[in-house]
Amino acid sequence: MVGAVERIAQEIAALDKETSAIADAFYSAYSTYLAVLGQAVRQQLILASYHVCTQGYPEAFLRLSYSQRQQLQQRLRTLAQHVQEEIAAQLHKPVAIAPPIDRLALEPVPDTDQSSISAWSPDEPLAIASPPPQSRSLTPTDLAYWREELEHAIVAELKTASHAANRLLQQAQMLPQTLPERILEAATNAEMSDARVGTPNVLNLLVATDDDTVETEPSDEADGRSVMPIIAICLRRSEIEFADPVVAAARSKLRSLFAQLQGLGRDYQKKQHEQSIAEAQAAWRSSWTEE
């Protein structure tokens, strides 16, 4: 039985090495992906702004003076550069996450108190002590959490950038000054896929002027409500990747690594379960005595 425990421990050690290797590959792949994604976001944010100003609200853009146009363009360029830098800054090394305690150690009853031993009954709970924290190797679960956190951070950066760009356009009187803040926030919601128009990263919204609700489909004029069409920026990663082959290729590499991680995770969980069984069997035999 001890041989089985040692064998499984060696197999888990080998999986640990595979996890470390795929972690390095993930870090390298995300470094490349975030670099090219940041460049694409900077470019497509400007393109989306160009569309809003020249096709969405051309009259409002023409009402601006030459210096006002330059000021708006400079602010958009500064924002685009900042977003590119922020996207790259989301990358950090994956680390082992302290897991909830799921393997508890039995605390032996002190030998000095013999009366407590003789008085113990099966109805009384055993004393349980938590094992001291120990450093451990990176697991597939750690890597999956790291990846998920990074993915959420990327989406959050795109939504923040979209909202900031729409605020700049509103300040430049491209978007209506009376547009409620929550409408601008709705325009950055990447889930509003039905509100897309042909131009990537641009949304076409209809805002009901009576209660400021957002509509993603044209309203029936018979209902008596008047609507205000709004064209706003909404950076969507799927559209950014689709429009840029370099970003799409980098994303494809990440998908391939994730598929490998899923397979590794299944193997790791299986071996951990086998290890627990083997260790429990060995522990049972080591403490069992014939009466």
Low-pLDDT stretches: 100-133, 190-195, 212-222
* Strand proportion: 5-15%
Average pLDDT taken over every residue: 79
Oligomer: single chain
Q: So how many helices?
A: 8
**Largest sheet report:** 3 strands, antiparallel
Order of strands side by side in the largest beta sheet? 4-3-5
Counted beta strands: 5
- Give the N-to-C terminal Cα separation: 23 Å
Whole-angstrom Rg? 29 Å
Q: Which outline best applies?
A: elongated
Provide the domain count: 1
One letter per element, helices H and strands E, the order comes to HHHEHEHHEEEHH
Helix content, binned percent: 55-70%
The class by helix and strand makeup works out as mainly alpha
Region (Disordered): 112-137
Strand-helix topology:
Elements lengths: L1 H55 L1 H6 L2 H24 L15 E2 L7 H6 L8 E2 L10 H32 L9 H7 L14 E7 L5 E2 L11 E7 L3 H7 L1 H43 L4
Antiparallel strand pairs: 1-2, 3-4, 3-5
Helix pairs in contact: 1-3, 1-5, 1-8, 3-5, 5-8, 7-8
Question: What does this protein look like?
Answer:
By secondary structure, this protein is mainly alpha-helical. It has one domain (2-96, 136-287). It has 8 helices and 5 strands. It has helices at residues 2-56, 58-63, 66-89, 114-119, 140-171, 181-187, 237-243, 245-287; strands at residues 105-106, 128-129, 202-208, 214-215, 227-233. The strands form 2 sheets. A 3-stranded antiparallel sheet has the order 4-3-5. Strands 1-2 form a two-stranded antiparallel sheet. The model is unreliable at 100-133, 190-195 and 212-222 (pLDDT under 50). Residues 112-137 are annotated as: Disordered.
